[in-house]
Write a structure and sequence with these properties.
The structure is a single chain. The protein contains five helices and 32 strands. It is mainly β. Its main location: secreted. It comes from Lactuca saligna. Keywords: Copper, Disulfide bond, Glycoprotein, Metal-binding, Oxidoreductase, Repeat, Secreted, Signal.
Length: 570
């Protein structure tokens, strides 16, 4: 027996290794990013595709799997980076895909490897995180299933993913130039709303160049979701709008909300789902209506007064023809300016009672981020605490790990604005001038941090906007919402510390506040910003550093820009 021990050990090791491979797979994708002409809403324009597609290929994995994406940049004259939205990147902060924060951009002609573990089941997305490329079509779905043998707290027959988007005809470059110019040129409302990459622009609109718009192009035929009568469907709905807050509904059907940003919620029923850029939800819908006809699926822009046509898709009852239009007028949806129902939905989202992540009952640090619109040398900016954020040329992760502290400002941004107690959020500030900075917040590792997002009036009288804020590298507990100005001594007494939902993206409603809590336990450098493309471009963001000394050796592939050029050998 002793003679056979080495062989037995080898066999046992082989069996163990085989089981590990079975349990945690490698999902390998090879993508090429390039510009192509597409007609998403019947209007022909250049869009960014992945392997010829927009939305890009869906990633499907299982909890614990390693995802590898080899990304070739064939944009010819443009850099690129991709963020894996909702993936916490535990142990791989350099794979977060945030240009200027965790990596240098991928240069034209280069191939970059993203490799990370998907550590939690749920509904996620990916999208460009360089400039304003996301709105050019570079995005897609990322779905993570539970490990074998585990079950979810709800049942369904089929599983589908849908991404909602808005669509501009001007390029991201034209928009960025306008946002940076003096006088300021706002991007305006989108021309259409897309459901899974398809929308419909009115080609008869005056001023459209001949040949630019073709209403019969099959690329802009409505997206079709085919269902079998009597079956229940899980719809994984994500929003990656550049600007629009949306209401989504399916004519004549109720939806049961069961998941938000990868976390199970206490189920609740809605007729229409309000969804903000960066959010994901799972809803259950049963095909229990008259099966002899099709129904409309409708996406409508809310929160801003607008004339954007509703996005339409077809909820197709098999065996009706998928292109058969419903016999009814599409639902008109909620009034765009109704804030109360949107706040009520936010308040309704609580953790499923069997899946509560215990929330720390106290925090070690409170940071109040006053969302303001300002001016700097004539340029219009978005700011927090009167500081408009800008990205450095050398990514923070590399600067901090390699002690290149001269590459960004060392004076940290304020935890609260001077004069917060007397600041009137309901009027245009008497002094709208702000400063610009690329400094960051340094958080003590493993401490509990409260962030209060406080909304205020913009530069326009009687105007406050909805801002969806997204935190990289973390989920946070949403412990409270409120209207008006946050009261530091009273409002925390009303926090939900029993069953708050965990999310990675959350709205702050007009003239209101949102309180979130998280533990700074993920070594790295993480962006926190408004997920509206133009707002982040205009400075509505921040960066948190935590446990940088615990980050392992950085891969050389993320270097090559700014002061990191010294680390690249010719």
């Amino acid at each position: 027996m002793a003679k056979n021990l080495p062989l037995l050990c080898v066999l046992l090791l082989s069996i163990f290794s085989l089981n590990s491979i079975v349990e945690a797979r490698i999902r390998h994708y090879r993508w090429e990013v390039k510009y192509e002409f597409k007609s998403q809403d019947c209007f022909r324009k250049l869009v960014i595709t992945i392997n010829g597609r927009t939305p890009g290929p869906s990633i499907r994995a299982q909890q614990g799997d390693t995802v590898i994406v080899d990304l070739k940049n064939s944009l010819l004259t443009e850099n690129v980076a991709i963020h894996w939205h909702g993936i916490r990147q535990i142990g791989t902060p350099w794979a977060d895909g945030t240009e200027g924060v965790t990596q240098c951009p991928i240069l034209p002609g280069d191939t970059f490897r993203y490799m990370f573990v998907v550590d939690r089941a749920g509904t996620y997305m990916y999208h460009a995180h360089y400039g304003m490329q996301r709105e050019a079509g570079l995005y897609g779905s990322l779905r993570v299933a539970l490990p074998d043998g585990e079950v979810e707290p709800f049942t369904y027959d089929h599983d589908r993913s849908i991404i909602l988007n808005d669509w501009y005809h001007k390029s991201a470059y034209e928009q960025a130039a306008g946002l940076s110019s003096v006088p300021f040129v706002w991007v305006g409302d989108p021309q259409s709303l897309l459901i899974q990459g398809r929308g419909r622009f009115n080609c008869s609109t005056p001023g459209i160049e001949a040949g630019k718009c073709n209403a019969t192009n099959p690329e802009c035929s409505p997206y079709v979701l085919t269902v079998v009568p009597g079956k229940t469907y899980r719809l994984r709905i994500g929003s990656l709008t550049a600007l629009a807050a949306l209401s989504f509904e399916i004519e004549g059907h109720n939806m049961t909300v069961v998941e938000a940003d990868g976390h199970y919620v206490e189920p609740f029923i809605v007729k229409n789902l309000f969804i903000y850029s960066g959010e994901t939800y799972s809803v259950l819908i049963t095909a229990n209506q008259d099966p002899s006809r099709n129904y409309w699926a409708v996406s409508k822009m809310v929160s801003r007064n607008n004339s954007v046509p509703t996005g339409l898709a077809i909820f197709n009852y098999y065996p009706n023809h998928p292109k058969r239009s419903p016999p009814t007028v599409p639902p008109s949806g909620p009034f765009w300016g109704a804030i109360e129902p949107r706040v009520n939905q936010s308040l309704a989202i609580k953790s499923h009672p069997n899946y509560i992540h215990p929330v720390p009952q106290t925090s070690d640090r409170v940071i109040i981020l006053l969302n303001t619109q300002n001016r700097i040398n004539g340029s219009v900016k978005w700011s927090i605490n009167n500081v408009s954020f800008s990205l450095p040329h050398t990514p923070y992760l590399i600067s901090l790990k390699h002690d290149l502290l001269h590459t960004f400002e060392q004076t940290p941004p304020p935890d609260v604005i001077n004069g917060y107690q007397t600041y009137d959020i309901n009027t245009v500030a008497p002094n709208v001038n702000a400063t610009s900075s690329n400094s960051l917040y340094r958080l003590k590792f493993n401490t509990t941090v409260d962030i209060i997002l406080q909304n205020a009036n913009t530069l326009n009288v009687n105007n406050s906007e909805t801002h969806p804020w997204h935190l990289h590298g973390h989920d946070f507990w949403v412990v409270g919402y409120g209207s008006g100005k946050f009261n530091v001594s009273e409002d925390p007494k009303r926090y939900n510390l029993v069953d708050p939902i965990m999310k990675n993206t959350v709205p702050v409603h007009p003239y209101g506040w949102t309180a979130l809590r998280f533990v700074a336990d993920n070594p790295g450098v993480w962006a926190f910003h408004c997920h509206i493309e133009s707002h982040f471009f205009m400075g509505m963001g921040a960066v948190f550093e935590e446990g940088i000394e615990k980050v392992t050796k950085l891969p050389s592939s993320i270097m090559g820009c700014g002061d990191t050029k010294r680390f690249i050998r010719p």
